[in-house]
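for the recovery benchmark. tokens below, seq after
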């Protein structure tokens, strides 16, 4: 055997050993110092899990329709699937409820991701406690505390650094931002002084009453909706008597302070920050959540291209929302504080309220703050898949038993073992000692599959259900097919009269194209099925795609290098009758020597053909 071939085979086996050590070390490390288990996570049908019944919360004249319920179900399916291939099931009931069945016990973040509307809106800030300068029309309350507004830069994205913490993240506000809280009593005592001078003597407005506000003199209804609504979302005319009184009476520290607030995108909104330390009067929605085209979370990159430790959520807008954001930045940059601030609200609460220092030319937003990478990804996923058309409350949460159970898992594994034994028996019968390479390759592939599935259960919440077990069983046939193609190519070369050492390399070059084509078709089918399917069908497709990749790795780094090294041995290279590569048993052309050269004879009809000693190729 050529020295280069031997060296290449050894490098392939060395690469395989390194890969196994890396996967094994990663699993051991995440088990000892992390939360990974030593066995694959099981799906709903094999382990059981939790059943969540969600009932819609109707506010502001909303109606629960079949279309809205189905839309909410589809979005919940996307959110659940975004957390991994867990095989969760989401269905609707006849009484307008959504039933979510998922393996394991979901944590608080998972529950919030499933049931929360998670609608982000962008509104202009009209009034805010702790602003550097309060406009004359802004109600004057006892400030919650000084909190400098974060800034937005014009580096192509609006880099916002919130002083508040999104509720979905679960992380605490930065320790450097310590703001005293307003008590309920202080809010009550300052309610009178909170109303602007022009509104202080006004009676409690009724739907038919009108009051005049400072500024552009627009007449507004006492309910907070203007009789002739301003066209500018940053106009002071949105601060009506009713809005001012609602702002003065709102105590952000009181439990459930925002439960009864109706969030109408066409009207101003009185709300609080997510940590309850600042309250706002916001104008109508400038950019709605339905205009968010994409949302991604990750670590912010500095201007020099270096990755920092700052976690950010990058938002891109679509349609008219992108231009609306660009126009708003150009309009608001020249306004005074707090009107130059754009608040991002999530489920009616302010998560950030940065000010514009310059216009944002491309309309892309980058939100940074007290996010953890996990909370940022959860929020980005909710925003990416869209807001639920209805909000839901968790009605009941119960534990459910496995739909199949350990007996079905045992039978599935038994079926896989029987299939494996049949492949082994066939390989040994057909390929003699060469069949041992098939057995070893299958064991290596099984080890890779175990390590991969277990690690994916830790990193991507992959759960092995019965459909996944089926995918593993199908993978045995896929892997065996690759070996058969390779071995038959080598035997064909031996039949043509090539020495085994040359036949191994020539057969591998011919077999490699066939193996790549077959595995490519399998992977493409798995990818399409995974993209279009849901629940446990995705588990089958994911497992099939994973095992197809593992098959390529094993064939490239183990099977071919092993056969190449065995071809240099006396037992295989000499064509022992039990090696599976015996030329006589394969019906190879007769090889006889003539002087210093060799000729291959195909008796008795074909003439002798000279054979090259160095390459073994028929000339």
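predicted aa per position
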């Amino acid at each position: 055997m050529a020295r280069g071939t031997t060296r290449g085979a050894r490098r392939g086996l060395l690469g395989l050993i390194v890969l196994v050590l890396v996967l094994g070390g990663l699993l051991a490390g995440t088990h000892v110092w992390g939360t990974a288990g030593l066995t694959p996570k099981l799906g709903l049908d094999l382990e059981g899990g939790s059943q969540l019944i969600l009932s819609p919360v109707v506010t502001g004249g909303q109606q629960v329709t079949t279309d809205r319920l189905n839309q909410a179900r589809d979005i919940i399916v996307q959110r659940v699937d975004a957390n991994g291939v867990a095989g969760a099931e989401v269905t609707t009931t006849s009484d307008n409820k959504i039933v979510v069945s998922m393996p394991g016990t979901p944590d608080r973040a998972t529950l919030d991701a499933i049931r929360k509307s998670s609608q982000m809106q962008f509104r202009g800030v009209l009034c805010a406690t702790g602003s550097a300068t309060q406009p004359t029309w802004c109600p004057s309350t006892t400030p919650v505390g000084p909190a400098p507004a974060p800034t937005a830069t014009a580096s192509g994205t609006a880099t916002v650094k919130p002083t508040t913490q999104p509720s979905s993240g679960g992380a605490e506000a930065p320790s450097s931002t310590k703001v005293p809280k307003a008590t309920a009593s202080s809010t009550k005592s300052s309610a009178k002084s909170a109303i602007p001078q022009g509104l202080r003597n006004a009676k409690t407005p009724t739907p038919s009453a009108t009051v005049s506000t400072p500024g552009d003199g627009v007449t507004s209804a006492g309910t907070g909706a203007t009789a002739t609504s301003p066209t500018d979302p940053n106009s002071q005319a949105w601060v009506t008597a009713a809005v001012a009184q609602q702002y003065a009476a709102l105590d952000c520290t009181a439990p459930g302070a925002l439960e009864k607030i109706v969030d109408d995108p066409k009207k101003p909104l009185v709300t609080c920050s997510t940590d309850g330390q600042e309250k706002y009067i916001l104008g109508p929605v400038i950019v709605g959540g339905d205009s968010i085209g994409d949302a991604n979370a990750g670590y912010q990159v500095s201007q020099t291209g270096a990755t920092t430790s700052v976690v950010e959520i990058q938002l891109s807008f679509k349609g008219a929302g992108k231009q609306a954001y660009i126009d708003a930045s150009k309009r608001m940059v020249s306004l005074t504080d707090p009107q130059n601030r754009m608040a991002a609200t999530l489920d009616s609460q302010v998560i950030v309220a940065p000010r514009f220092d310059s216009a944002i030319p491309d309309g892309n937003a980058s939100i940074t703050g007290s996010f953890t990478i996990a909370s940022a990804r959860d929020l980005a996923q909710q925003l990416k898949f869209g807001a639920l058309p209805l909000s839901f409350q968790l009605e009941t949460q119960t534990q459910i038993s496995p739909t199949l159970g350990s007996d079905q898992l045992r039978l599935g594994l038994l079926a896989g073992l029987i299939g494996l034994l049949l492949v082994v028996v066939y390989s040994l019968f057909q390929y003699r000692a060469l069949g041992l390479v098939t057995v070893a390759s299958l064991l290596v592939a099984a080890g890779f599959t175990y390590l991969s599935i277990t690690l994916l259960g830790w990193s991507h919440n992959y759960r092995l259900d019965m459909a996944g077990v089926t995918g593993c069983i199908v993978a045995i046939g896929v892997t065996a097919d690759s070996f058969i193609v390779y071995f038959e190519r080598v035997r064909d070369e031996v039949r043509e009269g090539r020495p085994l050492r040359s036949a191994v390399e020539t057969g591998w070059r011919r077999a490699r194209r066939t193996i790549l084509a077959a595995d490519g078709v399998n992977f493409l089918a798995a990818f399409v099925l995974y993209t279009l399917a849901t629940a446990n069908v995705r588990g089958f497709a994911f497992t099939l795609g994973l095992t197809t990749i593992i098959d390529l790795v094993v064939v490239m780094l183990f099977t071919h290098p092993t056969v190449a090294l065995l071809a240099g041995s006396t037992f295989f290279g000499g064509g022992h009758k039990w090696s599976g590569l015996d030329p006589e048993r394969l019906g190879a052309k007769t090889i006889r020597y003539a002087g210093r050269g060799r000729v291959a004879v195909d008796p008795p009809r074909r003439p002798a053909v000279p054979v090259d000693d160095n390459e073994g190729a028929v000339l």
